TrEMBL record:
Gene3D superfamilies: 2.40.50.100, Nucleic acid-binding proteins, P-loop containing nucleotide triphosphate hydrolases. Keywords: ATP-binding, Nucleotide-binding, Transport. It holds the Pfam family ABC_tran. PANTHER family: MALTODEXTRIN IMPORT ATP-BINDING PROTEIN MSMX, OSMOPROTECTIVE COMPOUNDS UPTAKE ATP-BINDING PROTEIN GGTA. The keyword Transport applies. The gene is ugpC. It comes from Pseudoclavibacter chungangensis. GO terms for cellular component: ATP-binding cassette (ABC) transporter complex, substrate-binding subunit-containing. Residues 4-236 form the ABC transporter domain. This is sn-glycerol-3-phosphate ABC transporter ATP-binding protein UgpC. One of its GO terms (biological process) is carbohydrate transport.
């Protein structure tokens, strides 16, 4: 086991384009499960590949434990990687696929056997050790790929979208198994995904990347409750946080017919700017009676989850020029409004998020 440190790490694929990874500083604790998340092209895979030694670092330093690994080839870094395509050898049995990495490292046969049996027991693979990959389901192949990483007993696990080839139900099951297994093994793990739900449910901490730049590093709840900027606010959480730009007048904004005071710290952060970017999660907006103060929302879609639902619609009386603002409101129970209905909505003012309208940086 070992901590992993990125210090000012930069990767440029061409001298003219912006860096794929831009001065990344990241401390990953010993035994931590860190998830790297962000939209396609944000630099997640490049970050992982630099740590693995598969891509060079143009600037900065990476450490595994107290060892600077710059220039150390992938095979000598004491890491094990699980790829999205699993990369299993089709003609070999599960047992041979799992033990191959140990053979090339010269681990003696009895030790190889012990480790393979131990990993197979952890992953429920014992009855499958004699099969070939073509005789396995997608979920079983995924477990073999995990097993092959585990038998290496590396200092660090690297996983690049390891669940992307599984169907939705199996993905949910397997993400819980991987998270549980990682905690049992207590091996530092860096896990790449573009799926914010995977990030929220699996990571001890999450690093959100956009355009090669680290946007925020924190626990799932920190990111959800106190996103550092509008990008993180909209990226983390499903459905995405509703956001709109409001005009601040007399230290307050209008939410339809309701006046909402802007917290003092937010006003201070605005530094005289006239507008503020406001954000509300679906659970912080609620339906109120027609005679109460609030904003009118015309419902365009109701997503039914059984126990509750999400009401999507367009709100008036929020944005500066009164253009309709798309909002999502969580509704409990089964007596939901229907598509086309007009409802009145009010926010829990304490739970609104405030960002600088130009920079997107969190205020207050
Ligand atoms: P995805 O989720 O789509 O896999 P990602 O977040 O993993 O995306 P990277 O694959 O790290 O993103 O790519 C980051 C940026 O670097 C992208 O703009 C990509 O086009 C660019 N890039 C990646 N690999 C190369 C390469 N070999 N040559 C040139 N540009 C590259």
């Amino acid at each position: 086991m070992a901590a992993v440190t990125f210090e000012g790490v930069t990767r440029r694929f061409s001298p003219t384009s912006r860096p794929a990874v831009d001065h990344l500083d990241l401390d990953i604790g010993d035994g931590e499960f860190l998830v790297l998340v962000g939209p396609s092209g944000c630099g997640k895979t490049t970050t992982l590949r630099m740590l693995a030694g598969l891509d060079p670092v143009d600037e900065g330093t990476i450490r595994i434990g107290d060892r600077v690994v710059d220039g150390i080839p992938a095979k000598d870094r004491d890491i094990a990687m699980v790829f999205q395509n699993y990369a299993l050898y089709p003609h070999w049995t599960v047992a041979r696929n799992m033990s191959f990495g140990l053979r090339v490292r010269g681990v003696p046969k009895p030790e190889r056997k012990r480790r393979v049996l131990q990993a197979a027991a952890m992953l429920d693979l014992e009855p499958l050790l004699g099969r070939r990959p073509s005789e396995l389901s997608g979920g079983q192949r995924q477990r073999v790929a995990m097993g092959r990483a585990i038998v290496r007993e590396p200092q660090v696990f690297l996983m690049d979208e390891p669940l992307s080839n599984l169907d939705a139900k199996l993905r949910v099951q397997t993400r819980a198994q991987i998270a549980e297994l990682q905690r049992r093994l207590d091996v530092t793990t860096v896990y790449v995904t573009h799926d914010q739900t995977e990030a929220m449910t699996m990571g001890d901490r999450i690093a959100v990347l956009d355009q090669g730049v680290l946007q925020q590093l924190g626990t799932p709840i920190e990111l959800y409750d106190r996103p550092a900027n509008a990008f993180v606010a909209r990226f983390m959480g499903s459905p995405a946080m509703s956001t709109w730009t409001s005009r601040v007048e007399d230290d307050a904004i209008a939410f339809g017919s309701r006046r909402i005071e802007v917290p003092r710290a937010v006003v201070a952060g605005l530094d005289g700017a006239a507008d503020v970017l406001v954000g509300a999660r679906q659970e912080d907006l609620r339906l109120v009676g027609e005679d109460e103060e609030g904003a009118d929302v015309v419902v365009s879609l109701v997503e039914e989850y059984g126990s509750d639902g999400s009401l999507h619609g367009e709100a008036s009386g929020l944005a500066i020029d009164d253009t309709p603002v798309p909002v999502v409101v969580r509704v409990d129970g089964r007596a939901h409004p229907l598509t086309g209905d007009r409802v009145r909505v009010r926010p829990d003012a304490e739970r609104l998020h405030w960002f600088h309208a130009d920079t997107g940086v969190r205020l207050g």
